[in-house]
Amino acid sequence: SELSVSAESTPSCTVYSPGTKTGGSLDVSTSTFFLPGTYYFVDVEITITGPALVGMIDGAPRVPAGCETQAAAHEGGAVWVFGGSSTLLVDKGDVDFYPLTLGTGATAHDVSLMAFTTATGGFAASTVDPNDTELVNRKNPTQSSLSFHGLVWAPGSWLNTGSSTTSGGARLEFLGGLTLARATLETAANVDGFNISVPVRLVKYHLIEVTAVRNGTTKVRTVSRHPSTGLQVLTWRVVG
């Protein structure tokens, strides 16, 4: 079915029902709730400048103002699938993705966003080039909070967080993990507890480049696996 605005929408909350959108743009500028289910975007430019909730779990701490009734009535996860040139730009506001469980048994995973490198399961491959275009871009890191509670599976894509900062209480969370071709994950010097973990069983080689600048002392530790020399652990301290 085509992506549509649900009859549950009100002047204070726009509600979308699961479906497919092909071409054009989707601008989320006011309080918005995406009902649980699967959303398929083909050649769509998505821009979020207002608070949005994708899927719902009981007790979610951040529900867009005006969408409380609709969210409380529809508990369940949602997944976004990107095909063709589809991209997501998060400019302002809080955005929370609560995932849909895909697969069964030991192969089940909670997934929030998917973009395939080849056509899979009736979904078109993403054509967004990770060398020059972000699949997901957080444009205003001091004004936009982005939380994926499930896996972001986009092995041929680029995700750019901008420079995470505590200014304004902005948040950045990838609680279900990231599978990407390229990730730009930045943080300001005043942010504590910035942590990246890469499971080596998933890839044979990866490059982690860390730059640290701070007035004081910063400790940085990088653990990586080189294809010929094996496991490497690099630790250093930057003193301002």
Q: Which outline best applies?
A: globular
Largest sheet: 11 strands, mixed
N- to C-terminal separation? 57 Å
Unreliable segments of 5+ consecutive residues: none
Query: How many E strands?
Result: 20
Strand content: over 45%
One letter per element, helices H and strands E, the order comes to EEEEEEEEHEEEEEEEEEEEE
- Total helical segments: 1
How does the SSE layout of this entry go?
Layout: E1 4-5, E2 14-17, E3 19-22, E4 25-28, E5 32-34, E6 37-42, E7 45-48, E8 52-54, H1 68-72, E9 78-83, E10 87-90, E11 93-97, E12 100-102, E13 109-115, E14 136-138, E15 144-148, E16 151-164, E17 172-174, E18 178-187, E19 217-226, E20 230-239
Parallel strand pairs: 2-5, 3-6, 4-7, 5-8, 6-9, 7-10, 8-11, 9-13, 10-14, 11-15, 13-16, 14-16, 15-17, 16-18
Antiparallel strand pairs: 1-2, 12-13, 19-20
Report on the structure:
By secondary structure, the protein is an all-beta fold. The protein contains one helix and 20 strands. The protein has one helix at residues 68-72, and strands at residues 4-5, 14-17, 19-22, 25-28, 32-34, 37-42, 45-48, 52-54, 78-83, 87-90, 93-97, 100-102, 109-115, 136-138, 144-148, 151-164, 172-174, 178-187, 217-226, 230-239. The radius of gyration is 19 Å and the shape is globular.
